[in-house]
Amino acid sequence: MTSLALSVEEAAAQLRVSRWTLYKFIRSGQLKSFKAGRRRLIPASALNDLVDLLMEEAA
């Protein structure tokens, strides 16, 4: 089953970046996230949006 939201660690592993880099994307507004209690979660769809954005910037 595919997760709707990923932890910071899971999202960083999916993108193959460090947690620090992932938080940088969140702080800059490039990656959407939300808080659930004390946990920060990233919607799975937001990872695709970030990759698309980074591809556009690279072109």
TrEMBL record:
InterPro entries hit by this protein: DNA-bd_dom_put_sf, HTH_17, SinI_DNA-bd
GO molecular function per UniProt: DNA binding
Taxonomy, superkingdom: Bacteria
Pfam families, per database record: HTH_17
Helix-turn-helix domain span: 6-50
NCBIfam families to which the protein is assigned, alphabetical: excise
The protein, known as: Excisionase family DNA binding protein
Originating organism: Nonomuraea polychroma
